[in-house]
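Study this chain:
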Amino acid sequence: MRLYSTLALALLALLLGCSSGKSLYKHGDYYDAVFESVTRLQGNPNHKKATEVLSLSYPAAVQYIDAQVQAAIASDQPFKWRSAVEQYARINNLHDAIMRSPAALKIIPNPVSRFKEIGEARDKAAEECYTAGINEMLKNNRENSKQAYYLFRDANGFVPGYRESIEMMDKAKSDATIRVIVDREAPNRFNWTFNQFVFAYKSNEFVQFYTPEQVRSDTSIHPHQVVSVQFLRYGETPPSVSRTTSNFGDSLVVGEKTVGTVKKPVKKWFTAQATVFRKSMTSEGILHLTIADLKSNALLRNTDVRSAMSWSDQWASCSGDNRVIPSSTKNLCGKSEPVPQQGYLVNQTRTDLEGKLSGEIAGFYGRY
């Protein structure tokens, strides 16, 4: 068997040296070689190179994966049965791919499977994850509780309902979760509210936000922090207008004349003047964000969230011959003095504040 395998690997290396798929196989990636061959055979059942590659790469792949499994099981690595499940699944993937391809099945008529073995490995993987989760919980701190939650989740994934894995997941997640009160906002003349953008943060499953009413009505909620978002101010600058005057001139054709037998264009110099006006306005909005630890009263975050927005537009007053005015300026000629859309800066500022507040919350609680 060892001699067969050695010869097979040598033949495979020789074959792949001249194969168009050399880049896939040159590192001995027999697993992907099988899938590549099966794909080619599905498109062309008589593909000669794919036939040869599959006949050599499949036994090499199974032999290599089985060796990986046995090495993992014999080792003292902490999650060796998880590794065994993953490797057995690879063999089963090869089996299924060949079974779905009539052309591949003619080449490998009896693909091996590890369905029985993977079932036994799942039981042992669930046990090792569950035991490791219990050990993490005994360390009694938040970070270890997070790791315990993932381990109990994995145990339940390997064997649904394994022992008390679901109950222990809930316990570990509860111990790992930061509970945050979102303080009430003071009313403001714009009727702006921002707390909804704190509650909208869902990226970290170990952070949970509550209203003060929820905490008061449920004594089982023991909050760790309080977030406060307060609107400080909004203001706009009065419109300011600047102007720039430019003179233009060019020689334009106004007719033609005949000199001897040759017609020549007649040109005349034309001038124009354009005064470009620019009207500008700016706005500023400010929120204040604090995040405090309820046990120590320490301020964990204390910052202003600022938005500075602007609006501007142009128009021009033009005289002379418009033909000599550049098109970028000419388009402004005759345009009326612009007025910003009602509420434009207010809405832009509010939207910008919402986005920046969301970013602040995500940046802070993403670390938890």
About this structure: The two ends are 54 Å apart (CA to CA). The beta strands are 178-182, 207-210, 225-236, 240-259, 262-293, 299-320. The CA atoms of residues 245 and 275 lie 4 Å apart.
